[in-house]
Amino acid sequence: MTSAPPTRPVVLCGVKHCGKSTLGALLAEMWHLPFLDTDIVLEEAYAHHFSDGGRRLGVREIFRRLGADEFRRFEAETVRTLATGARQAEGAEDGTKRAVVIATGGGVFSNPYLSDETLRGLGFTVFLDVGVEVAFQRVLRGGMPPFLADAVDPRAKFEQICHERRKVFEKYADLIFPIEREVSARRQAAELAERITEHGLS
To answer: Which of 43, 113, 138, 160 could make an S-S bridge to 17, C-beta 3.0–4.6 Å?
Structure first.
């Protein structure tokens, strides 16, 4: 049975490859809501602001070109725009459901250029608490990202990042959804939808 759609934005956070984009898209499909991925929104914003011969760059290439600090500044600008839209959606007075599902980049909630108010203003935040081993195997399948590529021990560095960011994700989470093993994405999405509905968002 499909759970009722939420009436406010649902925001997914977690480390890289925890399933934010996959589960976010499935939740949006189940609830017939718009889906936004901050990485994709960032790519579109970069393509709009910077000319690169008409070729759209992926978030990894943008990170390499801008450098870590400038990338975080640009990411913060992108997320602040989403936060403004989220507040407007929650303030709707015409009775329509303007909820949206948002998947955030792994570093968004640790971005030093984003305020506490902005992050909390995004919406109902779900921390996808994936096991480190599961996440790292997904990282390997997807190709080593820039922030791990130069590490002497990529796995050790990934574990350190997961440990550090976990505290941040827990701080902002309205709901913690554990992912300890690989199961069907649709099954996980259905379970997550039920957990979210239990919080009275519909």
So the answer is: 138
